[in-house]
TrEMBL record:
Function: Catalyzes the formation of phosphoribosylamine from phosphoribosylpyrophosphate (PRPP) and glutamine.
Organism: Butyricicoccus porcorum
Keyword Glycosyltransferase: yes
Catalytic activity, as annotated: 5-phospho-beta-D-ribosylamine + L-glutamate + diphosphate = 5-phospho-alpha-D-ribose 1-diphosphate + L-glutamine + H2O
Coiled-coil region(s): none
Span of domain Glutamine amidotransferase type-2: 23-249
UniProt-listed Gene3D superfamilies: 3.40.50.2020, Glutamine Phosphoribosylpyrophosphate, subunit 1, domain 1 (3.60.20.10)
Pathway: Purine metabolism; IMP biosynthesis via de novo pathway; N(1)-(5-phospho-D-ribosyl)glycinamide from 5-phospho-alpha-D-ribose 1-diphosphate: step 1/2
Binding-site residues for [4Fe-4S] cluster, renumbered to this chain: C265, C411, C462, C465
Similarity remark: In the C-terminal section; belongs to the purine/pyrimidine phosphoribosyltransferase family.
Keyword annotations: 4Fe-4S, Glutamine amidotransferase, Glycosyltransferase, Iron, Iron-sulfur, Magnesium, Metal-binding, Purine biosynthesis, Transferase
Domain of life: Bacteria
Cofactor note: Binds 1 [4Fe-4S] cluster per subunit.
Protein name: Amidophosphoribosyltransferase
């Protein structure tokens, strides 16, 4: 059953013109045979570098040595938060790590993950990718029962829910399984207890999570690219509704019996995941090339060159070029030394900030009819400035093709889609958007084609941000900082 969006409210979006990435999680359990080959903290650090595209606000690593959990986390990129001295001071035989972009909760150190908790039956650390749609309801119940929260993220709500279940059952894995019947929404999560490493994926499988092996040791990661960075072997995807337990170097599984359709977020294939990852059996790079091919089939145009907007539009642009026979070339050069936290120089000079990040290659554009391919248009401000950059470089015509449908609805499962009033596609025709951003023609990928791009995927897709239809019932509204004002205002 699919549920339709009922209201137009969502997270305030600020001035960004791209959707923010998901969070990324990683975990490793070192087998006794591998203790001289693997350093959990160092290898988790390497894996988080590979997952950095999924979150740039904060990161953290928790390690387990003889049942004692030590955590280091802070705001910033992986390279900002960790150094050799910190990693050398985190020995252990288990570790979990996290890179964060906030979809609920403010950007603060308190909201960084992993979340570590000590309770009467032990201690645990949790790393979570996704968003709970009933987090407000769960938090209210915990607070009314005397619970005290240190953060404003839904991950702490998830952690306390698991702890409450742990107090009523005989093992941490049973607590995780029981909690799955209470929480609703998207969660790919790792739980580290004194003796076990546990991975779980929500019954719909909204967010990716994979199982791998490094030597004889088990690892989990949001994407296969993290396994590749360590030279690890991919075993399989964690199944929706599955709980995997690693204890004493051995793996066993449990399954939640909530039966529902497997609906991975389709935007993982369009934008979020790294192109070299494979999600639920489908190559992300091939999916993006397929998106480019469908773009040409649905909206062909005569042109001299196809270019992509770095980095997310490049692979779809290659697909468009192959399908059309129009040569692909480099049209925009990205300055890779500008951090995503680059401070823009004021409202009147925002075009300068775009030029600092992206510059046109005049030799490949001058006098030519250009097809510019990107993964999405959110607010439209950045692509309008890019069009001006291309025209200033001598492009005779600029035709924009978008490898996703128009964004019309909020996401409740971990993607920071803005309030509709910030979405350029809401309430406007394609022709009106074309005129606003200043292109000669504009084409979006159809919803039908979007659902076909992930060739070989062993899943269906959630496309609610495009269609307004969701796999589960969603609240009327969702606030990014839902827990900042206190229980009285969020009841």
């Amino acid at each position: 059953m699919k549920y339709k969006m009922r209201k137009a409210d969502c997270t305030p979006f600020g001035m960004q013109d791209k959707l923010h990435e998901e969070c990324g999680v990683f975990g490793i359990y070192v087998n006794e045979k591998d203790v001289d080959k693997i350093s959990p903290a160092h290898d988790t650090h390497t894996a988080l570098f590979a997952l950095q595209h999924r979150g740039q606000e904060a990161c953290g690593i928790a390690v387990n040595k003889n049942g004692v959990i030590k955590c280091h986390k802070d705001l910033g990129l992986v390279n900002d938060v960790f150094n050799q001295e910190i990693l050398d001071g985190m020995p252990g035989t288990m570790a979990i790590g996290h890179v964060r972009y906030s979809t609920t909760g403010l950007q603060s150190r308190e909201n960084a993950q992993p979340v570590c908790i000590t309770h009467c039956k032990g201690n645990l650390a949790i790393a979570h990718n996704g968003n709970l749609v009933n987090a407000g309801e769960l938090r209210k119940a915990i607070e009314l029962d005397g619970g005290i929260f240190r953060s404003s993220s839904d991950t702490e709500v998830l952690a306390y829910t698991i702890v409450r279940e742990r107090l009523k059952c005989g093992s941490i894995e049973d607590a995780v399984l029981n909690a799955m019947y209470r929480v609703q929404g998207a969660y790919s999560l790792l739980v580290m207890s004194p003796r076990k490493l546990i991975a779980a994926r929500d019954p719909h499988g909204f967010r990716p999570l994979v199982l791998g092996k490094l030597y004889d040791s088990y690892i989990f990661a949001s994407e296969t690219c993290a396994l590749d960075a360590l030279g690890a072997e991919f075993i399989r995807d964690v199944e929706p509704g599955e709980v995997i337990i690693i204890e004493d170097g051995q793996m066993r599984t449990m399954k939640c019996d909530i039966h529902c359709n497997h609906t991975t977020c389709v935007f993982e294939y369009i934008y979020f995941a790294r192109p070299d990852s494979v999600i639920d059996g489908a190559s992300v790079a091939y999916a993006r090339q397929e998106a480019g091919r469908y773009l040409y089939e649905e909206d062909p145009i005569e042109a001299d060159v196809v270019i992509g907007v770095p980095d997310s539009g490049l692979t779809a642009a290659i697909g468009y070029s192959k399908a059309s026979g129009i040569p692909y070339d480099v049209g925009l050069i990205k300055n890779r030394y500008i951090a995503r936290t680059f401070i823009q120089p004021g409202q009147d000079n925002r075009e300068r900030s775009v030029r600092i990040k992206l510059n046109a290659l005049r030799n490949n554009l001058e006098g030519k009819r250009v097809v510019m391919v990107d993964d999405s248009i959110v607010r439209g401000t950045t692509c309008a400035r890019l069009v001006k950059i291309l025209r200033d470089a001598g492009a005779k015509e600029v035709h924009m093709r978008v490898s996703a449908p128009p964004f019309l609805h909020p996401c409740f499962f971990g993607t920071d889609v803005p309030d509709r009033k910030y979405l350029i596609a809401y309430g406007r025709t394609v022709e009106e958007i074309r005129d606003l951003i200043g292109v000669d023609s504009l084409g979006y990928l159809s919803l039908e084609a979007t659902n076909k791009i992930a060739v070989g995927a062993r899943c269906g897709f959630c496309n609610g941000c495009f269609s307004g239809e969701y796999p589960i019932e969603v609240p009327d509204t969702i606030e990014k900082n839902i827990f900042e004002s206190g229980i009285g205002e969020n009841a």
